Amino acid sequence: EAGVTQFPSHSVIEKGQTVTLRCDPISGHDNLYWYRRVMGKEIKFLLHFVKESKQDESGMPNNRFLAERTGGTYSTLKVQPAELEDSGVYFCASSQVSVPQYFGPGTRLTVL
Amino acid sequence: QKEVEQNSGPLSVPEGAIASLNCTYSDRGSQSFFWYRQYSGKSPELIMSIYSNGDKEDGRFTAQLNKASQYVSLLIRDSQPSDSATYLCAVNVNAGGTSYGKLTFGQGTILTVHP
To answer: Which residues contact B97 (CB under 8 A, 6 or more apart)?
Structure first.
């Protein structure tokens, strides 16, 4: 069974540009989560989808971040415009029920 | 006070020894507890989950939960150099659905097992 996949693995952009991260959950997992780890800090929750609906987006830092999950399958996380403090590793996780969650390899975002 | 606290280490143990990793949490509503292992540049890999007080064993790993004292620990017996990684403690608070699914992580403990 394929695990959670994320694309790209690494993205380097300049401040003010737009970046879109993609996550493909494990097949059959209705729950999809986005987390972020900035340097030196712990992994922090961003938001939670159940199928295509946002269950909890309390961790989204501001309105420059937009997450979508069309059709309840893959999800995208768009950052527009990107700021320096958005740099970090963005993880996606999925699960059948709320826990346990299985993580993808992450996308390392560097904003210059 | 952080919601989930871990000693960042590094914790260094000799091969074959028992490695003991500790985690405390602040929210008494916490229901589910997880240990993830993360190798450098890789995804967090779930190695243990525990939901009730007491011990849970899986191979060389034992998770211990004490809700009254609000701590959860992970013991690794017969430590191997391949166990060298960052160990992340994660806690789930399921409070009437308002935090459904959200995991709160500690900063992680770096474990080094030397031959």
So the answer is: none
d(CA A109, CA A80): 13
Contact call for B102 and A45, based on CB within 8 A: yes
Residue A42's alpha-carbon distances to A19, A28, A36, in angstroms, are 23, 28, 8
Task: Name the more confident of A74 and B94.
Answer: A74
On chain B, the residues whose CB falls within 8 A of the CB of A46 are: none
- Sign of the CA dihedral running B4, B83, B47, A95: positive
- CB-based contact A64:A83 (threshold 8 Å): yes
Report DSSP state, residue A26.
P
Return d(Cα A37, Cα A39) in angstroms, integer.
6
Contact A99 B108 (CB under 8 A): no
pLDDT in tens for each of the 115 residues of chain B?
Answer: 778 999 888 999 999 999 999 999 998 888 899 999 999 989 999 999 999 999 999 999 999 999 999 999 999 999 999 999 999 999 997 655 555 688 999 999 999 999 9
Q: Are strands B11-14 and A31-37 parallel, antiparallel or unpaired?
A: unpaired
Residue B66 and residue B9: Cα distance in Å, rounded? 22
Interchain CB distance below 8 Å, B107 and A56? no
Chain A with chain B: Cβ pairs closer than 8 A: 67
Which three-class secondary structure state does DSSP give residue B42? coil
Residues in B closer than 8 angstroms to A92, CB to CB, are none
Give residue A68's pLDDT.
97
